[in-house]
Amino acid sequence: MKISGRILTPDGWIQGHLHYAAGITNVEADPAAPSDNLILPGFIDLHVHGAGGTDIMEGGDAAQRVARLHARHGTTTMLGTTMTAPPEDIEYALHGLGRAIATPEPASAQILGVHLEGPFLNCKRLGAQPPLVSTGTLEQVRRWNAIAPIKALTLAPEIPGHLQLIAQLSAMGIRVQAGHSAGTYEDGVAALEAGLAGFTHLFNGMSGFSHRAPGIVGAAFAHGEFAEVIPDLQHVQPGALRAAMRAIPRLYAVTDATAATGMPDGEYMLGSQRVMKCMGCVRLVLGDSLAGSALTMDQALRNLVSLGLSLEDASARVSRYPAEYLGLQDRGLLTIGQRADIVVLDPELQLRLVIVGGHTINLAQGTPQDESVLA
């Protein structure tokens, strides 16, 4: 198959043709190619709780239903993200995730693994997480990892025993992130020295920055290479987003999407918590805390561009940097040999096509689409 237009390659834009099957087979320059398509790598979202009225903690086929909706918004790879809950509830969700990971659907974003967000958090910085925290142990993580592969794990590094756990989990290949943390700057630095890889929804659910108490945010600014951020323009004010992009070399976007994503205003579930979506914002019903988002990755891209980022920079933050964070060698760029995970936008940055592993998604229905539409 072939798509024509402006192609974002690692060396910059070219006008031409991108050839692909399951993988990208050729990128051909042709200044006369007539299309105004903007062709980018598929989006990679490492923090997804739900979509379409479905929460991943429901287990069963919930993760696959969530992945279908996110694919229709350009996400070609994602991590299914859990909530703090009793161990048996987490395990139930992990069994569903494990099945979705083992048997991917062509009409869905590929779920590569799990982002375990909780229960190893600080009760002082719960945000929308329920008060069911516990201290993490290697044995517990190994048990859960055997059910479904854990690729990223959020914990509060200041909890006694967690520095040692960071080192142990890093040795297993799990990317450990600081989040829902009341730790100090010194706690953050010690965690980085122990192997901490990143920071969960930067600014939110962590001790903030001030000039005499830099907090976890300060540790991220001063020493972090990677961090995730929610660019819905509600979780983080644009000025703070710009500051973070200058400070953290590979700050990348996540949605932290909930069951409210893609749905009308109303009440939904986030794990065991009731949340309300109103005018695009998701908050706890009992309390005023932000509770994840209704963001999709195509809107995240548009929001970043609206802040003044080039499309190349914005694309890196929704594709290349999250791929690099997980150490993925086969996606996040448009080069020969990469998996054919592709998004095609119009000049207004609205989606025209989404291709996952060479399969074109019907954006209206979330099903595989006849390949002839690209001929």
Automatic annotation (TrEMBL):
<dbReference type="InterPro" id="IPR006680">
    <property type="entry name" value="Amidohydro-rel"/>
</dbReference>
<dbReference type="InterPro" id="IPR003764">
    <property type="entry name" value="GlcNAc_6-P_deAcase"/>
</dbReference>
<feature type="binding site">
    <location>
        <position position="117"/>
    </location>
    <ligand>
        <name>Zn(2+)</name>
    </ligand>
</feature>
<dbReference type="GO" id="GO:0008448">
    <property type="term" value="F:N-acetylglucosamine-6-phosphate deacetylase activity"/>
</dbReference>
<dbReference type="GO" id="GO:0046872">
    <property type="term" value="F:metal ion binding"/>
</dbReference>
<dbReference type="Pfam" id="PF01979">
    <property type="entry name" value="Amidohydro_1"/>
</dbReference>
<feature type="binding site">
    <location>
        <position position="212"/>
    </location>
    <ligand>
        <name>substrate</name>
    </ligand>
</feature>
<feature type="binding site">
    <location>
        <position position="201"/>
    </location>
    <ligand>
        <name>Zn(2+)</name>
    </ligand>
</feature>
<comment type="similarity">
    <text>Belongs to the metallo-dependent hydrolases superfamily. NagA family.</text>
</comment>
<dbReference type="GO" id="GO:0006046">
    <property type="term" value="P:N-acetylglucosamine catabolic process"/>
</dbReference>
<feature type="binding site">
    <location>
        <position position="180"/>
    </location>
    <ligand>
        <name>Zn(2+)</name>
    </ligand>
</feature>
<keyword id="KW-0378">Hydrolase</keyword>
<feature type="binding site">
    <location>
        <begin position="204"/>
        <end position="205"/>
    </location>
    <ligand>
        <name>substrate</name>
    </ligand>
</feature>
<feature type="binding site">
    <location>
        <begin position="290"/>
        <end position="292"/>
    </location>
    <ligand>
        <name>substrate</name>
    </ligand>
</feature>
<protein>
    <submittedName>
        <fullName>N-acetylglucosamine-6-phosphate deacetylase</fullName>
        <ecNumber>3.5.1.25</ecNumber>
    </submittedName>
</protein>
<keyword id="KW-0479">Metal-binding</keyword>
<feature type="domain" description="Amidohydrolase-related">
    <location>
        <begin position="39"/>
        <end position="358"/>
    </location>
</feature>
<dbReference type="InterPro" id="IPR032466">
    <property type="entry name" value="Metal_Hydrolase"/>
</dbReference>
<keyword id="KW-0119">Carbohydrate metabolism</keyword>
<feature type="binding site">
    <location>
        <position position="235"/>
    </location>
    <ligand>
        <name>substrate</name>
    </ligand>
</feature>
<feature type="active site" description="Proton donor/acceptor">
    <location>
        <position position="256"/>
    </location>
</feature>
<dbReference type="InterPro" id="IPR011059">
    <property type="entry name" value="Metal-dep_hydrolase_composite"/>
</dbReference>
<feature type="binding site">
    <location>
        <position position="128"/>
    </location>
    <ligand>
        <name>substrate</name>
    </ligand>
</feature>
